[in-house]
Amino acid sequence: MANRERQRPAERPAPALVRLPAVLVNLFPSAERRVELTSGTVAEIIDALDARWPGMRERICDSTPAIRRHVNVFVAGERARLDTPVAPGADVFIFTAMSGG
Amino acid sequence: MADKVVLLVGTRKGAFIVEGDRERRAWRLRGPFCEAWPINHVVGDPRTGTIYAGGGNAWFGPAVWKSTDMGASWTHSSRGLAYAAGEEPIRSVWSLAARDGRLYAGVEPAGLFESGDAGETWHHVAGLQQHPSRPHWQPGGAGLILHTIVPHPDDEDQMWIGISAVGVFHTGDGGETWEPRNRGTRNDYMPDDQRYPEYGQCVHSIAMAAGMPDRLYQQNHCGMYRSDDGGKSWQSIEAGLPSSFGFPSAVHPRDPETLYLIPLNGDTAGRYVPDGRAAVWRTRDGGHRWQALRTGLPQENVYFGVLRQGLAVDRLDPAGVYFGTGSGALYASADEGEAWTTIAEHLPGILSVEAMVVGD
What we know:
The structure holds 2 protein chains of 2 kinds. By secondary structure, chain A is α+β, with helices and mostly antiparallel strands. Chain A has helices at residues 2-5, 22-25, 42-52, 56-60, and strands spanning 16-19, 34-37, 61-62, 66-67, 71-75, 78-79, 91-96. Chain A has a single domain, classed as Roll (Ubiquitin-like (UB roll)), CATH 3.10.20. In chain A, the strands form 2 sheets. A 5-stranded mixed sheet of chain A has the order 2-1-7-5-6, with helices on one face. Helices cover 0% and strands 42% of the residues of chain B.
C-alpha cells in the first residue's frame, strides 16, 4: 500500500488498485496479482491489462463483447460490467466463479 | 538417427506427452500441461516438432496452447479466434490440423479458423459459415462442434471437415465455398423417407486412406462408411462389425485398405465396448471383412468408451496403434494391433490421442 500513498502530481488522478486471481496470473508468466491502473471504465482497465500482458483481454472477456460468464469483476464492492465506471482510487477485484468438477 | 514416438494426449484435465522408444516398449509420461484446462486435441507438426493443444476453459474461454520444446514450456493464444461482436462466442477449440506451415482449428460453435504464424494469431475461414445450410445446423450431444479437419495432402485448396449432427463438408477453393458430402450416410433419427438428407448426418470422424486422397473412411453416429470419390458418395462398411455406433477411426500409414475402428455397444446402451470386452476392429480389405483385435486388452467387466479423437496410428513399420479411454487408460500396440499393452491407467478422461514420430 505504500506505493498508493506516495505523493503524486496534483493533476493525475489516483489509480485504481486491480487485484487479479492467481489462476489468471498463472497464464501470463510476468503478470502480477496487484496492479495500479488509471482508467475510466472496466473496459479500459482490461485494455490496460491486455497492453501489459498481451492476451489477457481474451481470458477475461468474450467476443460479445462481455465479461466472461464465469468471471466476475467487482468495482468498489459492486459487481460490474464492461461499461461500469472506475473512480479514481477504486478497488477493482477480478474473480473466477466457483465452478468446475 | 533413432526415431522416437511421441504420443500427444488431450484429457478433461490437461494435456500429457508420452514418449516411447522406436521399439515402443519403454514409455515415459509427462504432464499435466496447459494448466489442467480441458484439452480436446493435441497435435504435433513433425517438420518442426512444435506441439499444439486446443481446448477451452470454463473461466477463460478457448485457446490454442503451443510448445516448441516438447512440452517443457507452453504459451497460449486466442487472438483472432473469435466470431464477430454480437454472435455467440466460441467456447472451445475441438480440433487442430497442421499443413505446410499453416495451422487450422475447428471450434464450438462450429467454425474453422486458420493461422499462418504458428498459432499466434487466427482468422476466421468465413466461407463455411456462409453456407446456406448454416441456419439449420443443430448441435449434437457434445455441442455444435467442428471436430475433424482433413486437409488434402497435395492440393492446398482442398479440405474436408466434419461437424457433429451436421455432416461432412468439402472445399475445393481454399475455404471460400463449401459443399456437403454426405450422400449415402444415414440419419436414423429422421422419418423413414428422410434418412439420407443432404446434411444433418452425425459424422463422428473421418480418416483419409494412405496415398489415396479420394478414399475416405467415416465413423458416423449411424454406421461406418467408405468413400472412393472424395466423399461425394459413401457406402456402408458396417457389415461384420458388432454395432453401427462408435467414434474414432484411424488408417494405416501405408496401406489404404487397412482401417481401425472401435465400435461401441450403441448410442442408447451406454456407449461402452460391446459385451464388456475391449477390442479394436481392423479391416485389411477396405471394409469387407473385419477382425477383432483383443490380445492384451481387458476382456472382462469393461465399461469404457473411446471418443472421436481417441485412436491414432504412427508411421513406423510395423505401424503402432494407440487408443485412450474415457476412463483414463492408454493402450498401445507395436505390431499393427495384434497385441496390446497398457501404458497409462489413471489419467483424466482421455479426449484425444495423436502419434508423432520424431528424430531422437
